[in-house]
Design goal:
The structure holds two protein chains of two kinds. Chain A is of the alpha+beta class. The termini of chain A are far apart. Chain A contains 21 helices and 14 strands. Chain B is globular, with a radius of gyration of 25 Å. Chain B has a two-stranded antiparallel ribbon with strand order 1-2. The chains are: A alpha+beta, B mainly alpha.
């Protein structure tokens, strides 16, 4: 009797375990967002945050109701969290059908691992779609001559914003040269106002300073050599001068107290500008929409000023050169089913940059990457800013993609880490250049 | 209950005692199977995977290629590793030094029986109920030099760049860790103190020992194993402090709070260097095992025996 009890117990134990074992083995490949949307629709991951989240949701809803068999399901993530999440998901074969990204080095990694679809022939078959977008927006979507992503959303150069009210109070003009910047730093510190707002903990925010300074000092060829992995490209004297200028600005208290503990995800850096705690901010043009929405009437009352990045005496760069994001990008996962890929392509063609979406972007203060929108921009309440961005995107002799997106993820992480230390003055400009030089070609 | 059950069956049980013991052991062996299964699936297999990955080059997305010892050489030549190792041990030791006395004293205090102490014990326990991420976000917001507590309450001395200056950030990380985990260890000590027989204290009182003497000669020695348990959890746990630091500082400013666990994550998932990240993971496992073994030794071999012998 005892014997039979033992074996019954062990049988029960095994029975109880079976579902766990099945769950454990099946968790390896069949579940997850890639497969769960198998019913004809496509899944997409996108960034949270307004106003874009609402715009994208409306676009997806409109597409889904017009195509009841091809629904688009969107999941939203915070910017910095998303960048990690998407890489992990792709590596694990769990990517959504539509992969949102920034093109450049990240896209190159995906393309070389055959994780994203080659869209070249699809674009050839849809010439109207290709002609619809700014030609420059295809640069960061093209790897080895093939197009791996659909450019979308808007062009987002980095802009020098300033608080007009504070400038009027101080009786000064926005900076045109680096020397102007250094003297404005003294003026505003004297007034008890921080000269520049900066969300330094996010690190890519600090990077924007280097991007412009290196361009103004050494011209666009310096970074081009770095991007192409030429030997000793980081050891260019312009890189060292850039680092020196940055540390001079940090030493002169150019940035707000505590900048290295402020994150851009919380938009605290924007808040510093529109609440008058900081006089200026170097940031992406996408922050215009955020400040308009959150800054009470700061933008609406015309208190937000914007200029191009100043020149540096003796520098080679054209002051019309821009840096930033030429567009956003969407790729299709090669792991998706044919049906999902079809849905995604249909959405790319009919669902993303529709007239409604274009209007929504313009209304939120952004310039969509669509040709022939001059009239729309001119009739907008934000026409000054929109035309400023549009002209910059259209007339810039070179428009450099943000470094952390242009470089490979490995080099980008090393770059952000070294920039953080450069701003903290824990490494010298020389060490910065040397450390980065070690990452060339990685 | 005790009378009815204990008389008749006991005699029958004694007869078949030796046969029973063997069978009971067999039955108990079955009971370890689920644990063993989960241990193999979720610990042994991934561990072997990490060890294999540490000899490969993989960006986490494309194909995996063999790398031989390259990752190991490159990681050990990297000053970031030594910085991370140093920080990990520094945080471990300082956290232990800060948390142990506080939680020991609080544990002794809350082990008392008055009603208000029960209420206090609940209050002390609250921080542990919050997730590390929530704790980190809350502290980050409170300590923001421009919009935080300092401006809100008008306390200028609080308006430091807490998370932006390397040594302040490190100190703050240790403080927040203590804030979160002291309640847990207090609870362990409270339990330990309540296990100490009252008769020991009664005897000491008769001999004329005061509160301080009682603490050092009865409470502390009797808590030896509790201290070892709590310390093991603290020390081994400090190897895995990740979420809190990740949200609070992200390893910054510079590399000033980039402990091993964070270093592993940043290498693997930010820089797409799965090979070197796996090397760090293996190092973490080795350190964790060594520390756990060391602390077990410290407890002595008689650990399983009764503490109340001779009473």
């Amino acid at each position: 009797m005892k014997q039979s009890q033992t074996s019954r117990r062990s049988f029960l134990a095994l029975a109880a375990l079976t579902p766990f074992a099945v769950a454990a083995t099946s968790a390896c490949g069949t579940s997850g967002p890639g497969a769960s949307s198998g019913g004809g629709g496509a899944s997409m991951w996108y960034l949270s945050g307004e106003p874009n989240q609402t715009t994208m949701q409306k676009a997806a809803d409109a597409f889904s109701s017009a195509n009841p068999n091809d629904k688009i399901t969107v999941t939203y993530f915070q910017n910095d969290a998303y960048k990690t999440k998407i890489k992990t998901a792709i590596g694990a074969g769990q990517a959504p059908t539509i992969i949102y990204g920034w093109g450049g080095g990240g896209l190159k990694t995906y393309a070389e691992a055959s994780q994203v679809e080659d869209l070249t022939s699809w674009f050839d078959a849809n010439p109207d779609l290709k002609k619809k977008f700014f030609p420059a927006s295809f640069g960061a979507a093209t790897i080895n001559g093939k197009i791996y992503a659909l450019p979308n959303q808007y062009v987002a150069p980095i802009v020098l914003f300033y608080n007009k009210e504070l400038f009027a109070k101080a009786g000064v003009q926005p900076p045109k040269t680096w020397d102007d910047i250094m003297s404005l730093v003294k003026t505003f510190n004297g007034m008890g106002v921080a000269p520049f707002s900066l969300g330094g903990q996010s690190r890519w925010t600090s990077m924007m300073w280097l991007e412009y300074l290196l361009d103004r000092i050494g011209g666009p060829d310096v970074f081009k050599a770095i991007f192409e992995g030429k030997p000793n490209a980081w050891m260019d004297p312009a890189v060292i001068e850039t680092g020196t200028k940055i540390q001079e600005l940090v030493s002169a208290d150019g940035f707000i107290k505590g900048f290295s503990s402020i994150t851009a995800d919380s938009n605290a850096d924007q808040a510093l500008l529109f609440t008058g705690k900081a006089a200026m901010m170097l940031h992406g043009s996408w922050t215009y929409g955020g400040m308009k929405k959150n800054g009470q009437n700061f933008v609406q009352d015309g208190k937000l000023g914007f200029v191009s990045f100043p020149t540096v005496a003796g520098g080679k760069g054209d002051p019309k050169n821009g840096v930033g994001n030429p567009a956003s990008y969407m790729s299709i996962s090669s792991k998706a089913t044919d049906k999902e890929k079809e849905t995604a392509k249909k959405f790319f063609k009919d669902g993303i940059l529709t007239d409604t979406v274009i209007d929504a972007y313009i209304n939120s203060g952004s310039v969509p990457i669509v040709n022939g929108i001059e009239d729309k921009l001119n009739s907008s309440a934000d026409k000054d800013f929109l035309n400023f961005v549009y002209d910059m995107a259209k007339n810039a002799p070179t428009f450099q993609q943000s470094w952390d997106q242009a470089l490979s993820p490995t080099a980008a992480e090393a770059l952000l880490n070294n920039i953080d230390q450069l701003f903290l003055k824990s490494i010298t400009p020389q060490q910065f250049a040397e450390n980065m030089n070690g990452t060339l070609g990685k | 209950m005790s009378n009815a059950v204990s008389t008749a069956p006991r005699a029958a049980a004694r007869r078949s005692e030796s046969r029973d013991a063997g069978q009971r052991k067999a039955a108990l062996a079955w009971l370890t199977l689920p644990a063993l299964f989960f241990f193999v699936v979720f610990a042994v297999i991934p561990l072997a995977g990490v060890l294999i990955l540490s000899f490969t080059s993989w960006d986490g997305i494309g194909a995996i290629g063999a790398a031989g010892m390259d990752n190991w050489f490159s990681v050990f030549a990297d000053p970031v590793l030594y910085n991370a190792l140093g920080l990990t041990f520094l945080i471990m030791i300082v956290s232990w030094l800060v948390q142990t006395p506080i939680s020991l004293l609080l544990g002794v205090f809350t082990a008392g029986s008055q009603r208000y102490r029960a209420a206090l014990a609940v209050l002390y326990f609250l921080p542990l109920l919050l997730s590390s991420a929530a704790v980190a976000i809350a502290f980050k917001a409170l300590l923001d030099p421009n919009f935080g507590l300092a401006t809100g309450l008008g306390l200028p001395f609080l308006a430091q760049d807490w998370l932006g200056v390397p040594h302040l950030a490190l100190g703050l990380v240790i403080f927040v860790i203590a804030w979160q985990f002291v309640p847990f260890h207090t609870l362990i000590y409270q339990g330990g103190v309540r296990q100490i027989p009252k008769s020991l204290y009664e005897a000491a009182q008769i001999d004329g020992a005061g509160t301080v003497k009682q603490f050092f000669h009865i409470t502390l020695p009797q808590l030896k194993y509790t201290i070892i348990t709590s310390s093991t959890l603290m020390v081994v746990g400090s190897l895995t402090y990740f979420d809190l630091i990740f949200v609070l500082t992200g390893g910054g400013p510079g590399n000033s709070t980039r402990i091993l666990a964070l270093d592993m994550y940043l290498r693997g998932f930010r820089a797409n260097l799965m090979g070197p990240a796996s090397v760090i993971a293996v190092i973490l496992v080795i350190i964790g095992l060594a520390l756990a073994l060391f602390l077990q030794r410290l407890g002595g071999k008689d650990k399983q025996g009764s503490q109340l012998e001779g009473l």
